Backbone:
């Protein structure tokens, strides 16, 4: 089973709200990723967790705060977002980040900031 | 600097009309090259991993090949359900701070008409 699940599917939030995106995988993968994707563009890497530790932060604004509670779960906490943060947020996982292991993506959360 | 370029940007095919998509890359060292398929509003679906020049992988009507500078995704006798955006991504050997990172191309949007 190569399934990564994400909740919610859609989220509309105001600029003063606090919300969280959730991601789960049960493939025993030890690397998990958050990506942001704008329309007609490829995914852009935001964060990488390796063995539950943050290993890459692509200079993402602090209004995005990742959390990895355990090896199967990944959260993205959102606070004081801007309208330009509206996008499809994708979670992915891989066996680990080395050896060219493929990443499996979830269906995404469509975020709209009003 | 690592670069991934996909061509063409868009491709319109008649059902049964075979064609090829190109992904050219410039990296210091290749750890892996990945092909994904993405339907509108959904997460990318993993198709193939290629590691070394001369390698080929096949799945149904799709065949991916790799040389030292580029990869091709051949679509044989496509059907309307093959309509999607096809993304190429490379993982470079790089340095430890690039561990796990994928460099995506902009994608090729394929439309197959009956």
Residues:
């Amino acid at each position: 089973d190569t399934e990564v699940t994400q909740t919610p599917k859609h989220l509309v939030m105001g600029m003063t709200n606090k919300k969280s995106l959730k991601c789960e995988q049960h493939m025993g993968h030890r690397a998990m990723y958050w990506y942001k994707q704008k329309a007609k563009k490829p995914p852009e890497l935001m964060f990488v967790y390796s063995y539950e530790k943050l290993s890459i932060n692509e200079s993402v604004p602090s209004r995005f705060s990742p959390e990895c509670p355990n090896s199967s779960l990944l959260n993205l906490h959102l606070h004081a977002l801007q309208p330009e943060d509206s996008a499809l947020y994708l979670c992915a996982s891989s066996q680990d980040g080395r050896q060219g292991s493929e990443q499996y993506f979830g269906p995404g959360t469509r975020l709209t900031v009003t | 600097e690592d670069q991934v370029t996909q061509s063409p940007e868009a491709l319109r095919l008649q059902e049964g009309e075979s064609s090829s998509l190109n992904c050219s890359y410039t990296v210091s060292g290749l750890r892996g090259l990945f092909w994904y398929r993405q339907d509108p509003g959904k997460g990318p679906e993993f198709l193939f991993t290629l590691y070394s020049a001369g390698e080929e992988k096949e799945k149904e009507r799709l065949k991916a090949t790799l040389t030292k500078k580029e990869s091709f995704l051949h679509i044989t006798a496509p059907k309307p359900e093959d309509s999607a955006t096809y993304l190429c991504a490379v993982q470079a050997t790089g340095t430890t701070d690039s561990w796990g990172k994928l460099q995506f191309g902009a994608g090729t949007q394929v439309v197959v008409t009956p």
The two ends of chain B are 41 Å apart (CA to CA). Chain B has a mean pLDDT of 94. Residues 2 and 98 of chain B are 11 Å apart (CA to CA).
